[in-house]
Amino acid sequence: MATMEEIVKKADQLEYRGEKREEYLKQEFKLLDERQAREKKEEAERQEKKEEAERQERKEKEEADRKERLEMEKTKLDAEMKLLQAKIEAGIIKNEPDGSGARSSDSGAKHPKLPNFKDGRDDLDIWLTRFERFAESNGWSREKWSSLLCALLTGRALDCYGRLSAEQARNYDKVKEALMKRYDLTEDGYRRKFRTCKLAESESPDMFIVRIVTYLDRWIELSKTDKSYEKLKDLIVREQFMDACPEDLATSLREKDLPTLERVAKQADLFLKARNRNLCDPPRKVFPGNARPRIDSVGPFEPEKKFNGGQRAGEAKTSFLRMPFGMMNSGAMLTRAVKKLLCRMDNVVDDLLIHTETWEAHVKTLSELFKRLQEANFNVRPVKCLLGSRTVDFLGHSLGRGTIGFQDENVEKVRNASRPKTKREVREFLGLVGYYKEFVPNFAAVSAPLSDLVRKGQPNNVNWGDSQERAYNSLKVAVTSKPVLQLPDVNKRFVLRTDASNRGLGAALMQEIEGTLFPVAYASKKIDR
């Protein structure tokens, strides 16, 4: 399959010139794009079928493994039930009224095994509650709880246990207190969770409400607050007050752990009086600088800062009647004046560029424009005017006849660009051709070998290889061949084509004109691997 470079060489061999060359290249590039798109689509379909077959195979294997595990668990459970029934019939296990047979260690009964604590998956507070209930139901001595607990800990919990002294490690209450602090399951931790919790993605509203209530209950429980209305009101208002205070005052109040709102208010008053401060700090600068208006700021001047541009010469005082050149806001004022002047003239854009579909409409728009300029006392320099032209150069592009192309001087810059040798030169070349990336199909994928050279960690003197040479030549050919895009017509149907590969994503916006699809714009995105 011919490449873009081969197509251009063939056009040179056939000695095509002007519009004939342009039409030939357009047709060949179109056929090339269609062939590439067709091949990529077929490859994507083959890959999708392969992945679908692999997914189906994995799914069937997982289902078979699941059924096998369920069957094994069922068989194991049946065997245990038969063994338990046999022991009951043989009188090994006795169903005593007071339940001592189930609690005795020599009764022969097997209790369910308590699973280990999984750091990062289990909630420590809930897991410890289950451990305590399990220990009580099995009649374990509380003196042995800490030694039994350490065998079930993993991760950060085990690390926290290992940092305790021998005396603390033998005391279950000390171990529990250390673990709760390590996982921020304290009064302050539950307070923060209650104040800042958000609905998780996998949570239903009912589950979220239960979690909020749990945080509140644990906060109240650990703060040792009575659940009467007055006590709860005191706790919540006290928390809200400290949360709204300045940071240093709030820190001081929390350090003292004051039990009532009255004592909090008294201590806060003493703190502020000792420092000769108010509860609300005075406004102060956030950044070391002075606030100054932006160039496009619009608003009334402060009287003491108003400037009229006046100056004195002897006894006479003069001032400007119009905005002088060089003032900070002169550019913004001119832009606002022109925008106000051209209000509701939809076919006149920045820099007084006029676009119309017919000559009559063009003359009518010019007449209205000159009339408004004259009424506003604006002057237009004839030497800078271009009237009645079918094409016009604007912002590096050539517009006209329903198409948009390249400006000749920019094409010459790309044609004369030398091969980059350093990172900076690679960036300059990519910036030069990247200005016209909307004209180049799959620009991101084509330029990927060059953009890889300027990534962080690459040497300043680039390593130029075959892939970089191909990308360099392809980009130069793509720009110097002067492709054109169709100007969009919002009243006609658009066609969007997309493509993807391991190197990048590509898209082409097209529009059908007289039965033929013409490109309006190309877009692409490189995929970092």
Note the beta-strand portion: 5-15%
Structural class by helix and strand composition: alpha+beta
What quaternary form is this?
single chain
Report mean pLDDT, rounded to a whole number: 76
Q: Specify the overall morphology.
A: extended
What's the helix count? 20
Q: Please name the CATH topology of the domain at 403-526.
A: Alpha-Beta Plaits
Distance between the termini: 28 Å
Q: Give the total of beta strands.
A: 11
Regions with little confidence, pLDDT below 50 for 5+ residues = 91-110
What does it look like?
The protein is of the alpha+beta class and 529 residues long. Among the domains are: 4-62, no CATH class; 124-185, no CATH class; 333-388, no CATH class; 403-526, Alpha-Beta Plaits (2-Layer Sandwich), CATH 3.30.70. It has helices spanning 4-13, 18-90, 100-103, 124-137, 145-150, 155-162, 166-169, 172-182, 187-196, 205-222, 229-244, 247-256, 261-274, 330-341, 359-375, 408-415, 423-434, 443-446, 448-451, 466-480; strands at 311-313, 316-318, 348-349, 353-354, 391-394, 397-400, 403-406, 485-486, 494-500, 504-513, 516-526. Helix 6 packs across helix 8. It is extended, with a radius of gyration of 40 Å.
